[in-house]
Design goal:
Shape: globular
Order of helices and strands: HHHHHEHEEHEHEHEHEHEHEHHHHEE
Number of domains: 3
Radius of gyration: 22 Å
Strand content: 5-15%
Helix content: 40-55%
Structural class: alpha/beta
Number of strands: 11
Length: 370
């Protein structure tokens, strides 16, 4: 418990940027305890309203007890449960408050999907379509639990019946607060079937300045960020900018040229974002990165010829059989031979790759793993 309390104090300590916290950790053998005892931090404790590190620790112990009593968890950046993609950004939170299915932080296909709170009818249709297709393709959908696009995306993930729901909501306030109030039922469902996280202390109000900081976590958790609909001055564009700075893919749905509600999307497309008209546009771009990330901790599974493949759907079995018959095949060939919709073929290929059953070469052709 001592380690998480130290990280909790350092995370919330005012008057010290993440860069300086990181520098001090490096100078002191990455001992958080040593950093917190450093005399130079006395002014930071006083700024927080405490006379010393010892007095501050009493607050941390109380916060920890409140977290446990609420059925929440605390994860420090040093924990194995902390998401690797988020750890790689320039200023990751040192601590995350979490409630729900913690294993979603290790999901192989996390994708941020964001957009306007005041969403148009067209934007609602795009959000439902992409949310449903991406959830069915096995993505973990990350968003901000706001009204409009965010809520539609979380609901789409929760409604996919074929698999357990995979969706993460990132708050701009304390984890125990339901904001906006209209999402009370969605919050309850997310806590049971998905995951809700925040970097803000319990009791922290949903202040306006919290949300831009929250957005870096949304993009930081994901392989890429999809903007469904955004005006020129929109929080969704902040998330997209963070994604670009973090070296992640950015996708945007095209918008009617006379629609102010979607002007931000068209601006992103002019800046080089990938145009999205269907889920396959996204899956084809993020799958190579997902495979690379999966191979970091362990080598891909090598299947012997005697191993019986386990398929998640009839489409998976059909596509695998065709790849086996053809030796190598691309997406176009498999779509033609299978008679399946292109989106189903891409989903099947994604699932088969994640299971280590097939592999994709540099030429975009698939073959069976031997």
């Amino acid at each position: 418990m001592a380690a998480i309390l130290d990280y909790l104090i350092l995370h919330h300590l005012p008057g010290l940027s993440f860069v300086n916290k990181k520098r001090m950790l490096a100078e002191m053998d990455f001992s958080v305890e040593k950093v917190l005892r450093h005399p130079s931090l006395l002014s930071c404790y006083q700024q927080w309203g405490f006379s010393s590190n010892k007095a501050c620790r009493s607050w941390a112990e109380t916060e920890w007890q409140r977290v446990k009593a609420a059925g929440m968890q605390l994860i420090s950046i040093a924990d194995s449960a902390y998401p690797q993609l988020l750890r790689e950004i320039a200023d990751p939170p040192l601590v995350l408050y979490a409630k729900g299915r913690l294993e979603l932080l290790q999901h192989p296909l996390p994708l941020a999907v964001v957009g306007a709170r005041k969403v148009s009818v067209y934007g609602q249709q795009v959000a439902r379509y992409l949310g449903t297709e991406l959830a069915a393709a096995g993505c973990c959908l990350v968003s901000g639990l706001a009204l409009g696009v965010d809520g539609i995306i979380h609901e789409a993930a929760l409604e996919v019946a074929a698999e357990p729901a995979a969706t993460i909501g990132v708050l701009g306030c304390g984890l125990e607060q339901i904001y906006p109030r209209q999402h009370q039922r969605l919050f309850a469902s997310m806590q049971q079937h998905g995951l809700i996280i925040s970097e803000f202390a319990l009791g922290a109000a949903p202040e306006k300045y919290h949300f831009p900081r929250r957005n870096r976590i949304i993009s930081g958790l994901a392989l890429g960020t999809v903007v469904v609909e955004a005006a020129q001055r929109s929080g969704a564009l902040i998330t997209a900018r963070y994604a670009m700075e973090q070296g992640r893919s950015v996708f945007a749905a095209p918008q009617p040229i006379l629609s102010p509600a979607g002007a931000g999307n068209n601006a992103l497309l002019r800046q080089g974002a990938t145009l999205v008209s269907q889920a396959t546009d996204i899956m084809e771009e993020i799958m190579p990165q997902a495979r690379a990330d999966l191979q970091k901790p362990k080598k891909p599974i090598k299947r012997s010829r005697d191993m019986e493949p386990a398929f998640g759907s009839l489409a998976d079995a059909k596509v695998f059989a065709l790849v086996q018959q053809q030796s190598t095949a691309d997406t176009e060939m498999l779509t033609r031979l299978s008679g399946l919709p292109a989106a189903e073929v891409v989903v099947a290929l994604s699932q088969l790759q994640l299971q280590g059953m097939i592999q994709c070469g540099d030429d975009g052709r698939y073959s069976v793993c031997r």
